[in-house]
Amino acid sequence: MARTTSAGTAPPRWREVFQGARGRLTAGLLILEALVAVEILVVATILPAVQRDLHGLQLYGWNYAALTLASFGAVPIAGKLTDRLGPRRVFAVAIGIYGAGLVFAATAPSMLVLVIARFVQGIGGGGLYVVSLATVAKTYPKRIRPRVMALLASMWILPGLLGPPVGALLAETVGWRWAFVAPLPLIALAAVMVMPSLRGVSVSEKRSGLPVVASLVLMVGAGSLLAALTDLTLWSIPLAVVGLAVTIPALRRITPPGTLTARRGLPAASAAAFLASAAFFATDGFVTLMLTETRGLSIAGASLVLTASSLAWAAGSWWESRAIERLGARRLTSVGALLIGAAGMGIVFPTIPLSVMGEVEEGREAGELSSTILMDYLGVGIGAGLAGASVALADAGTLSIEAGLAGAFSIGIVAAVLLALVARRLPDARAS
371, 211 in Cβ contact below 8 A? Predict the structure, then answer.
């Protein structure tokens, strides 16, 4: 009896994730995750060079905020369509938009145009993220999901080793624009690999409860608020007031009731997703700028820090996949909040979606997960946007660059402390 109990509670073997038709699907999802990881890490590496060339320090944070706010608007639409039509069609459209955004970014003549290109990328990226998580929820047994999520997180290892050095090499040789062109062959490969794997994934006739209009309104409201803080003028106060007046009611419609107060269960998971992303991107999103502008490092030198960060993220995710059944989502998220740099985010990033997956209704996985995904994206946009607003004060001469970066990092620390408090209210995520 003891041996049976032990075997029943043991983590599934890794090879189970790659058996039969499930293996082809897993391979496709891993390629997709690696694609996104490469692009994110390369852009994070080259942004200081972009800023010097296009002279847009004031819009530095908007390269993250525009990407994520666009994803915010795309996620609910992609969630509804994925549940109703299946992920295959949504993936095809999303990856096409994502590739077009890369081409647009490579030819940008100014930082403002680059921000617009990042917005286009974000529309495609939001669809790709929904397809990935929804496919995990729809097709994998609950006991295998932690392994799949850990594998997806591990796809940041190779990009973490290659992405920053490649980005630095391109920026210092042929130019940073080629960093946006380089992922295009990988996009084509991902399309060839993923599309057949998504055929036959279940669909549902149930209506998703996530309001699309409210998501778009929230995207506009949050963008208005960040715009008011980025460029301080006489219009900043009324623009910020309008942004808040639009954002808060829309946020209440999108998220589960009780999200703003982190009520126990799914509302707390949505709040935790927001805080985790805000904490991480308010700090790590500006590390390369800090290293190049205040420490005098070259882009190549700063890229080594991003490489180490990616390895720490993967190590945290590997440990999370082994500890989730023993510790549960609440303890793991608390630990991750205290280590909110790369290792901590590696723990938190797969844990929060897993806590949600155990609570969602069958057939509505994408729609239910979209609420948490939206808060994740909103956290990136708000965290990077507020941190960018602090840095923008340095561009305007109000603060020194050191003080602007200190303000950015302080925003991340506050969000991490709040995440540790909210973690105690998450769904447990352990199999019953």
Answer: no
